[in-house]
From TrEMBL:
It comes from the Bacteria. One of its GO terms (molecular function) is UDP-glucose 6-dehydrogenase activity. NAD(+) binds at residues 33, 38, 89, 124, 153, 261, 330. Pathway: Nucleotide-sugar biosynthesis; UDP-alpha-D-glucuronate biosynthesis; UDP-alpha-D-glucuronate from UDP-alpha-D-glucose: step 1/1. Its EC number is 1.1.1.22. Keywords: NAD, Oxidoreductase. It catalyses: UDP-alpha-D-glucose + 2 NAD(+) + H2O = UDP-alpha-D-glucuronate + 2 NADH + 3 H(+). The keyword Cell membrane does not apply. Substrate binds at residues 150-153, 202, 247-251, 255, 323. The active site is at 258 (nucleophile). This is UDP-glucose 6-dehydrogenase. Belongs to the UDP-glucose/GDP-mannose dehydrogenase family. Residues 316-415 form the UDP-glucose/GDP-mannose dehydrogenase C-terminal domain.
């Protein structure tokens, strides 16, 4: 069954992906945003988010007449059957999610929503927000449903169209079923539950992923001390189907616009419920400590001793975005490590395949060529897991650096290849 009147409020990577994918499933979707220039660009099919497949889906949606863009939520909702809220919920004061964007859309649309329509909260919001939204809305003829998204940046379209699961929560069963039906063609397992549980699934999942990464980063550190190899350890662990191979690669810590925000928000929610969530606190602390540990790894590799000085040391940083496949620098562990390296006195040149002049990369001087970034450096430091770093011409890099040292903080490179080119390599979770 196709729904003819879906409104999506907010055209960030969640909103735009949701709108374009729902249109591709056969529904008719109007996406609204407050940014007039953005609405104009999207109407012309111009997508400025780096998300594989999204521009094509937007173009197809526009051509089919099933996807359109309007300025302002009120223009989109007047005849909507289902309204998706995909507005930002950034980290507010004290780590609590800032819901002002959700609240302002509700205020704007309260009197415009047709009777019987369903509001769907896709933004990550604290447990209890759906109930609060219902209260704010104060319309007994409009149901509020929680339907969290599980999209990763860089693979959002494919995550949407091949979901591991659909989660829909509402205290009114019929409204939850109407929302679940929108995804029926995807054939994914569907969890129908109450609103609070659906909201909790999103936080619990992201916090679990963060915990998995902090755990693996801690195990990697222990491997270094005990002479074990983390790649073999995680491979051996991951074959256990209860653990799985995914999300077991050590790195400079987890970042981005979701995991840091959601772990802090969950901690706040726990605090407010008078629950001391020590495991989550340790997950966050381990992540913060990881950044400092990365600086020590660089120090050791460059100077050969613990606590060696990095002052006047020139470093070539490979990768600055929070992960590969995106140009997003928000809460990037790479940038956090770069800041600490700068504070320790190092001079930084950086290269990232997704970045060019104009991106704010703090104290790093950005180059658009990895071989230029490597010129005269005392070490190359891999900070983001861009696959193309593996196939750089390592012999050429060896010929331009001052010292052939690589610190691979993503365990990305093939150590044999890099060593054959003349580099010494240090990575995570390996003693040699
Ligand atoms: C994350 C979740 O994975 C999505 O399921 C969720 O929908 C999304 O947040 C959200 O809440 O909207 P995302 O922020 O795009 O997605 O990033 P991830 O792919 O989860 O990566 C998070 C961080 O962990 C990155 O810094 C990444 O480099 C790091 N990471 C990931 C590792 O260090 N090792 C790994 O094995 C995997």
């Amino acid at each position: 069954m196709f729904v003819r009147r879906i409104a999506v409020i907010g055209t960030g990577y969640v909103g735009l992906t949701t709108g374009a994918c729902l249109a591709s499933l056969g529904h008719r979707v109007v996406c609204a945003d407050v940014d007039e220039a953005k609405v104009r660009r999207l109407t012309a099919g111009e997508v400025d988010i780096l998300e594989p497949g999204l521009a094509e889906l937007v173009a197809e949606g526009i051509a089919s007449g099933r996807l359109s863009f309007v300025l302002g939520a009120s223009s989109a909702v007047t005849d909507a059957e289902v309204v998706f809220l995909c507005v930002p919920t950034p980290m507010g004061v004290g780590g609590i999610a800032d819901l002002s964007a959700v609240e302002s859309v509700v205020d704007e649309c309260r009197d415009l929503l047709p009777a019987g329509c369903v509001i769907v909260n896709k933004s990550t919001v604290p447990v209890g927000t759906s109930v609060r939204t219902s209260e704010l809305l104060n319309r007994s003829d409009v149901a509020v449903v929680s339907n969290p998204e599980f999209l990763r940046e860089g693979t959002a379209v494919s995550d949407f169209l091949n979901p591991d699961r659909i989660v829909v929560g509402c205290d009114q069963q019929d409204a939850a079923e109407r929302v679940a039906a929108l995804y029926a063609r995807l054939g994914a397992p569907t969890v129908l539950t109450d609103a609070a549980s659906a909201e909790m699934v999103k936080y619990a999942a992201n916090c679990f992923l963060a915990m998995k990464l902090s755990y693996v980063n801690a195990v990697a550190e222990l491997c270094e001390r005990l002479g074990a190899n983390i790649s073999d350890v995680t491979e051996g662990m991951g074959y256990d189907r209860r653990i799985g191979q995914a999300f077991l690669t050590p790195g400079p810590g987890w970042g981005g616009s979701c995991l840091p925000k959601d772990t802090h928000a969950m901690l706040q929610v726990a605090d407010a419920a008078d629950f001391e969530f020590r495991l989550l606190r340790a997950t966050i602390d381990t992540n913060e400590r990881q950044r400092q540990r990365m600086v020590e790894k660089v120090r050791m590799a460059v100077t050969g001793k613990r606590g060696g000085s990095l002052s006047h040391v020139r470093l070539g940083l490979l990768g600055l975005t929070f992960k590969a496949g995106t140009d997003d620098l928000r809460d990037s562990p790479a940038l956090a490590v770069a800041t600490l390296l700068h504070q320790a006195g190092a001079e930084l040149v950086g290269y990232d395949p997704a970045l060019s002049d104009g991106h704010d990369v703090g104290k790093v001087s950005l180059s658009d060529d990895p071989y230029v970034a490597a010129k005269d450096v005392d070490a190359l430091v891999v900070l983001t897991e861009w696959p193309e770093f593996r196939t750089l011409d390592w012999a050429r890099l060896a010929s331009v650096v001052r010292k052939p040292v690589v610190v691979d903080l993503r365990n990305l490179l093939d150590p044999d290849v890099v060593r054959r080119a003349g580099f010494t390599v240090s990575a995570l979770g390996r003693s040699h």
